[in-house]
TrEMBL record, chains A, B:
It comes from Marinibacterium profundimaris. Residues 21-75 form the HTH lacI-type domain. Keywords: DNA-binding, Transcription, Transcription regulation. Pfam families: LacI (PF00356), Peripla_BP_3 (PF13377). This is LacI family transcriptional regulator. Signal peptide: none annotated. The keyword Thylakoid does not apply.
Amino acid sequence: MDGGDTKPTKRKPARSASRGVTMEAVGRMAGVSQVTVSRALSDPSKVSAATLRKINEAIAATGFVPNAIAGALASSRSKLITALVPSITNIVYAAMIRAFSQRMREAGYQILLSETGFDPAEEERTIATHLSRRPDAILLTGIHHSPQARRMLLASGIPVVEVWDFTDSPIDICIGFRHVETGRAAAEFAVERGDTAAATISAGDERARRRKAAFSEHFTRLTGTPVAEIDFDEMATVARGRKGMARLIDDHGFTSGIVFCSSDVLAHGAIIEATKRGFAIPGDIAVIGFGDQEFAGDVEPPITTIKVDLEAFGRTAADALLRRFEGSSTPDTAIDLGFEIIRRQSA
Amino acid sequence: MDGGDTKPTKRKPARSASRGVTMEAVGRMAGVSQVTVSRALSDPSKVSAATLRKINEAIAATGFVPNAIAGALASSRSKLITALVPSITNIVYAAMIRAFSQRMREAGYQILLSETGFDPAEEERTIATHLSRRPDAILLTGIHHSPQARRMLLASGIPVVEVWDFTDSPIDICIGFRHVETGRAAAEFAVERGDTAAATISAGDERARRRKAAFSEHFTRLTGTPVAEIDFDEMATVARGRKGMARLIDDHGFTSGIVFCSSDVLAHGAIIEATKRGFAIPGDIAVIGFGDQEFAGDVEPPITTIKVDLEAFGRTAADALLRRFEGSSTPDTAIDLGFEIIRRQSA
DNA sequence: CTGTTAGCGCGTTCAT
DNA sequence: ATGAACGCGCTAACAG
């Protein structure tokens, strides 16, 4: 075929279904080659002013949008970060991811987000599909992952950030706080207040349970008094906070003392229920929440809570990654951002 | 070089920095070609049981994870959907996206999510970068987009889903409800209740303002009474709900009537403030919210609100897309999912 | 059932 | 300052 050709020609298949404008097409229109278009986009200073102008005109005329897929394949940098969170409707994770996304976006990265719903097996599967996108980094919530997941992560060779929990031996980078410490601190806070009875209401998260367990253990150690515990497997809601408090009162005869809730939402519900039943907050029953959510200081009574700086987690994680991308030789492996008890009126 | 070769050999560059295992490598280990590996993964029935086994062994041994970037480039199907929402920390959008994601994930798609923060210019920029990822579809919040954005979207030729608002002439597919109608319905509800005075508190969203405007206009038309309006540019919070109610009482002398809030969060704050000042809800002041959020039925008094089925938006959007991917010839262009007034005790 | 060949659209050399 | 050639890792025909 092509018998008369002097040099082998590449067959250009008839482009019926337009798949989108290519750099090649832009170049043709501007009278330059594809590479020049590429350069004009990645580093305009490498192209003469005249051709740059023509290229920009061609881009405008064609509505060209670069194909990041092809770019990623060629350069093996995807400008993509993937992130796994237990739940995107949980404000705690959403706020963290928002701060992270904003910072990363400013640096030219985009975020592929998935929910794992607290299930390690689901997390493992999701990690695999995320890795197939060849992200430039991956962000995980928590520090507990299946062995297979760890293996895949390590094998991928990409930076891994674990947030929202803390360990001295992270896979790679870790930004978080010690959940157990929050429980201990709350127990100490209760004892200092003079509480001699305590209960807990927790929901949803494995980390919430760890906080609760630490609270109970420490409170019992300090006072010798056992702690009544109400647990919900499902996510925290105001309704469950109410139900938890109702059970504490009805089933455990809890009518005086402090209630440690694993989230402000639960605390809010608990306060509503106790108030409705005529208990004084914090006079009869004191309540301490977790998260310092938007509403915590504005309901009645304002909720005493444990605050963690969600935005800081996101920002710090992004900054650590960005530094790593720039080839920092001394990676910040583990950062404990701590927490703070915000004393308001509910306890 | 390679002087003695009988046929041209492809130069295999020395792979020092392992970029990840390839199908080629897996195939070598299994004693088959790269394509066979590809087939084993995409359609195992096209491969003999024996080779399938060997390939799976090789995959397990190497920890191979397919490169979706390369796959997308070759097939021009990315299995990626990108989505734009005003805010990911707003439960309304988060819940919608969650439902959408889950459905799409079951079908093998992943979601690239970005926040646009109610800014059309930002949306336009974000659409461009999203389009560069060559998604199989794009989901937008709302129906108002810049002309340039519309052009890019149309030019891309990919399915576009607009959610959370309704128009008869969508870019492509539209799933939502008529915000103006909710305001009208609330006004009618108020008049039927016998309210002769009304006020509004709104925040954040352009659509919230449209709901509010429709409420005010309709209420005034029905009763002849003007409506006091409090607006916040920032997002809805309990604090702003309280402040809004405070201003209504202090600045507008509003001590009796109904308050239409653009979100349950605002309504919650408004109720707290009014209650604290000794007003009876709904006896003195009635409050109606929007969203039927998790807590709406569990605070005191339970909040009367306008409910829209967020999960249904997400699911329906996903289903419409999936049907479109399967080549449905009769696309469902515009679906109005409506809304519902949930009467509880606050109004 | 399996292999060969030819791109997908771009970044990356290496020339000029 | 610009271009030619090549390959990133995979899917899509087309052979056999």
